[in-house]
Amino acid sequence: MTVEAEVATLVAVLAVAAAVSVVVRWLPVPYVGALALVGLGLSFVPLPGMLRLHLGLSGPLILFAFLPGLLFEASFNLEWLHLRHDWAPVVVLATLGVGLTTLLAALMGHAALGLGVGVALLFGTMVAPTDPVAVVAVARRLGVPARLLAVIEAESLLNDGTAVVLFSLALVEVSGGASLGSVALQFVRLAPGGVGLGLAIGFLFSWLTSRIDDPRVEITMTVLVAYGGYLLGDALGVSGILCVVCAALVLGNYGRRHGMSQRTREAVHWFWDYVAFLLNTLLFLLIGLSVPVGSMAQAVPVALLGALIAVAARAATVYSVMPLLGRHRLALAEQHLMVWSGLRGAVALALLLGLGPGPARAQLLAPVYGVVLFSTFVQGVTVGPAVRLLPRRRQAAE
Known about the structure:
Layout: H1 3-23, H2 31-42, H3 59-76, H4 87-112, H5 117-127, H6 132-141, H7 146-175, H8 180-210, H9 215-235, H10 240-259, H11 262-290, H12 293-297, H13 300-321, H14 332-340, H15 346-353, H16 359-388, H17 392-397
């Protein structure tokens, strides 16, 4: 593409984003779902010349260009104090829950879709995490009660990192030559290593911001934490995603209060609010544009079955794990919302496309896209009515 074409593409994307954000105010459709629908529609339109959106969607692109920024913004704005009474469901669902959902989805994928054991495990890791990008974008707009929103956000942020680690291990197992001991050793390095590195980066930059009072410099530091933390984690062989999440949690809950002036807090807030808006716009337009319409049209039953498997595995996990938490368990109505708000999007597609061309990707294309489309256009659209069905006394208490 020429420079003029690239600029025209960006202008077209921003124009679409502005139009959708205005129109969606009068429609019962979440903003991100509307963007994906518009992207899907544009894939049928032969737009001429420079107006054609030539942006490509790939696993590495999502994992580096989109996820660090979006995860940083969500983690930075997550009030950890809101979870002082509800840390148990977050931790259990983001660890044990992800493992159980992966196993259940893999078993059902093997039995119902005829996937081989290794490919079924990959499928399980792709659909196990609730995507923080989709969940946060939808839940915030719909006015989910603050306490429940904090639980949903925190779980979606942490289970994302856990699932990516499990995917990496499943990929090693499928490729062969990996013993159980080496897989366990990799898990110990990836997950705790990412958490530890993220905490260290978060406290380091919290200290640095306390020595500076310049919003432009401190905003730049937050960008370094988001993207530099991801790159550093990847270079050191630990989970870059968990590194970003943990660093942002520390910087948002400790550094912002102790190291940033009021004007810096406001500047950082509005900067990342716009970055999240822009990245969400690009990402969900690209999700719609990237749907392989021809392949999906021939595999609708497989796609629907994949979506049902993902919802069933999520439901079985939430309803079976919650009773183990005793007094920390969520109310039954809140458990229903936890199940239905478990949207999948960017992370699932990133992992799928990150496989590269091959038999595994060909087998997983229809079921994984089915999960993403069902999440976006069915669950995302009906989360609003589900929120309104919560008992009023629970919402009033928030």
